[in-house]
Design goal:
The structure is a single chain. Helix 1 packs across helix 7 and helix 3 runs parallel beside helix 4. The chain is globular and about 55 Å long. Strand 4, helix 4 and strand 5 form a beta-alpha-beta unit. It has one domain: Rossmann fold (3-Layer(aba) Sandwich). The protein is α/β, with parallel strands linked by helices. The chain is built from nine helices and seven strands, in the order E-H-E-H-E-H-E-H-E-H-E-H-H-E-H-H. The structure holds NADP nicotinamide-adenine-dinucleotide phosphate (NAP).
């Protein structure tokens, strides 16, 4: 039986994608740490849409967790034909102040778990000549963002990997693309200690990110930008110097005031 596996499905963008796909009749595997939230969501989606929903409670900062997620699917004879890598976290502040434990957690969840899950499920997709991988990257991955240095670097990593896979997998029946939202109203930045009130860009609703995912499914894009502002910011980089781009990214994110110098 075919399933869509979504990491970070307990809230925010991952949960919204789960709700959208459930409404379209996808069977789901929901992955995150919050067992209660996953259970409640699974119950609701099953009741509303009559789909199959499995939950897989894992801490993706644990290096072995992607293998356990894969094993879980294998044991239940779940074939994952769509993988959505949405789990992620950030931490606001100067890189030099980033606690080492947080550094490790951000890198493990944003990069390592995404890479390992992609590698594990991709093999089966290649064999079946069918599959879709959707990586939730960020506008922040288009350049370094002062105040979110490691986070922006992890999202650059996600984008770069996605780009290379897009070409490697062309003609093999597998679609890979990245969604690159700007600021989205999920509480994500608050959890990262980033004061959303200071952010100097509009904060979009989750619905626009879900629409971007649907657009990516229809069109042949490597990167999908959810809003017009995201698109303008991404492409206007070509018109200004790299230093200006990076300073502006710091200005818009506004983790601190002194990044425009
Ligand atoms: N919100 C934005 O403004 C924005 C903008 C651009 C890109 N993004 C990206 O979009 C993705 C989703 O963000 P969001 O806004 O939906 O954030 P969110 O509301 O904070 O949700 C993050 C999700 O990731 C899961 N997660 C975090 N750490 C995990 C861990 N160690 N193990 C397993 N799951 C973990 C969380 O589940 P548990 O806590 O239950 O484990 C939660 O389901 C992220 O990759 C983020 O970088 C967000």
């Amino acid at each position: 039986m075919m399933f869509t596996l979504i990491t970070g499905a307990s809230m925010g963008i991952g949960e919204a994608i789960a709700r959208e796909f459930a409404g379209r009749g996808h069977n789901l595997v929901l992955v995150a740490r919050s067992a209660d939230k996953l259970r409640a969501l699974a119950q609701q989606l099953w009741q509303d849409w009559g789909i199959k929903v499995e939950i897989c409670v894992e801490d993706l900062s644990d290096a072995e967790s992607p293998a356990r997620v894969y094993e879980f699917c294998h044991r239940q004879e779940i074939m994952v034909d769509i993988l959505v890598n949405s789990a992620g976290l950030s931490h606001a502040g100067d890189f030099n102040d980033l606690p080492l434990g947080k550094l490790q957690e951000i890198m493990m969840v944003n990069m390592m778990a995404m890479v390992r899950l992609t590698r594990l499920f991709l093999s089966d997709m290649v064999e079946r000549k069918k599959g879709i991988i959707i990586n939730v990257a960020s506008l922040g991955g288009l350049q370094g963002v002062p105040g979110l240095a490691l986070y922006s670097a992890t999202k650059s990593f996600v984008l770069t990997l996605t780009e290379a896979l897009y070409v490697e997998l062309k003609g093999k029946g597998i679609k890979v693309f990245a969604v690159c939202p700007g600021f989205v109203d999920t509480g994500f930045f608050g959890r990262a200690g980033h004061n959303a009130a200071n952010i100097r860009l509009p904060i979009s609703g989750i619905d626009v990110v879900v629409k971007a995912v649907l657009k990516g499914l229809k069109k042949n894009r490597i990167r999908v930008f959810p809003t017009l502002i995201d698109t303008v910011l991404a492409f206007s980089q070509r018109a200004v110097s790299r230093k200006t781009t990076i300073r502006l990214a710091g200005f818009f994110a506004a983790v601190k005031d002194d990044y425009m110098k």
